[in-house]
Amino acid sequence: MAISIDGISLGNLDNYITDTKLVESEKTDTFSDVLSAMMDSVNETNDLQNAAQEAEIQFALGESENTHDLLIAQAKASVALQYTVAVRDKVVEAYKEIMQMQV
User: Fold this and answer.
1) What distances in angstroms separate CA 91 from CA 1, 77, 88, 96, one per listed residue?
2) What's the gap between Cα 44 and its chain centre?
3) Could you give the 3-state DSSP secondary structure of residue 29?
4) Integer Cα distance of 92 and 80 in angstroms
5) CA-CA distance, 86 to 80, in Å (whole number)?
6) Residue 80 belongs to domain spanning
7) 2 - beta bridge partners?
8) What is the pTM (predicted TM-score) of this model?
9) Which residue from 43, 49, 83, 102 has the least number of CB within 10 angstroms?
10) Strand, helix or coil at 64?
11) Structurally, how many domains does the chain consist of?
12) Res. 12: pLDDT tops 90
């Protein structure tokens, strides 16, 4: 069934609705999936922090003279840490909101 809105044809709307429902049904994440993804993010942040610290040590010891690599490692670590803290803040905020709900 072709539907036209203001002269714009949407084509077969039934296929669009079926495809949309299929995509929505694939988005069911369990708590363990979300927790696993968050732990992976924390581990990645830790790895980036360690890499930045190692780059600082190498630069301080004179083993590396490339300041660009040092700045890139520090920037990656900083952005990852900011992201992790932002996610943590949202989780704490959601927890507080849930705890304030009346049963």
Assistant:
1) 45, 21, 5, 9
2) 11
3) coil
4) 18
5) 10
6) 29-100
7) 12
8) 0.64
9) 102
10) coil
11) 1
12) no
